[in-house]
């Protein structure tokens, strides 16, 4: 079953092709966590996804995460919201290749088949078009290997924002802690992708 994305996720005719930034990680390089407390990619969340993304060719990424008992909805199966989070996190990792700060504006998810506990979900995402501050992307999640059957897929619209978006809207304790981090690289990364 294939569904077309809604009109809001279809790039306009005058959208441009995405351009990989010259300073983006090389294909095959790990992207790494942007923030230790991020539920999707951070290592500081004991029940998080601990999603690990790698730069792909063009403006694409691959990622994996293992579904644990902490991620279940129905007995023995991954919760749909957790699967949507994995897709969203993978799509957010694409911003490292464009070198922009962006947040999820819209995410449409199709759940194709159940994902059992213990499964490694193999994800891939790519940017299709850019129009002003809007970034149009899609992702797919497979089970049983990178070429296995499709379990989930998503179309998305990310919106480029300035760092003030996080500073003005985040809880002050976390913002201050991130900004006080003596590691300048970690401090900058905390605000660089969709948290």
Describe the fold and architecture.
By secondary structure, this protein is of the alpha+beta class. Helix content is 20%, strand content 27%. The chain contains five helices and six strands, in the order ββααββββααα. It has a six-stranded antiparallel β-sheet with strand order 1-2-4-5-6-3, with helices on one face. It is globular, with a radius of gyration of 16 Å. It starts with 51 loop residues before the first strand and ends in a 6-residue tail after the last helix.
Give a summary of the structure in a few sentences.
By secondary structure, the chain is of the alpha+beta class. The chain is built from 5 helices and 6 strands, in the order ββααββββααα.
